[in-house]
Amino acid sequence: MTFPISENALLGKYELGKLLGCGAFAKVYHARDLKNGKSVAIKIINKNKISHNSTLMSNIKREVSIMRRLTHPNIVNLFEVLASKTKIYLVLEFVKGGELFARIANKGRLNEDLSRKYFQQLVSALSYCHSRGVFHRDLKPENLLIDENGDLKVSDFGLSALTDQIRDDGLLHTLCGTPAYVAPEILTKKGYDGAKIDVWSCGVILFVISAGYLPFNDPNLMVMYKKIYKGEFRCPKWMSSDLKRFLSHVLDVNPMTRITIEEIKRDPWFKKGFKDVKFYDLDFGDKFMVVKKEENVGFPLNAFDLISFSSGLNLSGLFDEACSSVEDSERLVVEDAPERIIEKIGVKVNEEGKGNVRLKKMKEWGVELQGQDGKFSISLEVYQLTNNLVVVEAKRLAGETVHFDELWKKKIKPGILSQ
């Protein structure tokens, strides 16, 4: 059954409802999918407010690219990414029950069995994230939602990190997180293990929902940091001895001896009533499909490929910081091998003759084309999407747009598209 499109319909697909939340550059609305009538949450990001802020742009890129990797019952699902000239729309799973933080703030601490249930679901989600190379880095009750069935959902991956952000020393170095929930090793600014700081934050969350207050707290931020660094906290009398013992292992200030996710799963306190979730885990590319109209064949792309290549929804001007305008850069999706693409580029450069264009190899599947007189420079990079599909990205690095048009659009691009 398809529902009628109202005047309030967003891009002809979703009917917007009430405002759920509001931030500096984004608003979240309840909405209805006009195809099936189901509820969704739509995060609407104002491009004008983020276009000049590289940090905000990076956070949005990270959030979307990470969420497309994750398909777990205890993680908020990202269904779709859409865009208009002024807005980016993230279509998310609607979680009816609201924040776990609000539940604690309104009703106080939870009983131990319910605390354990939520902690078990949090650990299940976290274990899955880590197995996919994702570290949340900002776990707190405000980022944990409760659905209508009373189950926990992890949200807000804007500060998350991937394994490719780990430096040569094997550690992450970006300082992030919410003060009361940050691990002591973050405060030393010497680098940290993403998995171990997530475990620490989980421990703080478990303490908060079980006790009704923070383990480390002080109006003076530096005093609070000293308490965190020293691991100074006291469990309330009503906590069971097993829970107190367990918390001492999770909130261990030494990351080398702190309990790991796998050790948590084997702990007697944690294991009580624990049932590991069974679910179908989509492959990385499966969550977003773009249809090639001429063949009606679907192929997988990640979230930012989807944003960039969807017809009429091109956001390359927002995300290509190296180019001054969309006209100075272009992406093609081509059914070919990366080696053949580089070979075709070389053929076209040779056809120019007389050394008018110099080809300089940048990386395995990337080259820079430089004019002999140094008046222009163009970079060409090839990215493999699937076994038989690649993206070719062309960027003007220097020189006039006319040189980019003449060499790329009129000569090399047709050569790449030819059989």
Structural write-up:
The chain is 34% helix and 22% strand. It has 14 helices and 17 strands. The strands form five sheets. Strands 1-2-3-4-6-5 form a six-stranded antiparallel sheet. Strands 13-17-16-15-14 form a five-stranded antiparallel sheet, covered by helices on one side. A two-stranded antiparallel sheet has the order 7-10. Helix 4 runs antiparallel to helix 6 and helix 13 (338-352) packs across helix 14 (401-417). The longest helix is centred in the first third of the chain and has 20 residues, at 112-131. The chain is α+β, with helices and mostly antiparallel strands. The protein folds into three domains: 9-93, Phosphorylase Kinase, domain 1, CATH 3.30.200.20; 100-271, Orthogonal Bundle (Transferase(Phosphotransferase), domain 1), CATH 1.10.510.10; 327-419, Kinase associated domain 1, KA1 (TATA-Binding Protein), CATH 3.30.310. A hairpin with a 5-residue loop joins strand 16 and strand 17 (390-398). Residues 14-270 form the Protein kinase domain. ATP binds at residue 43.
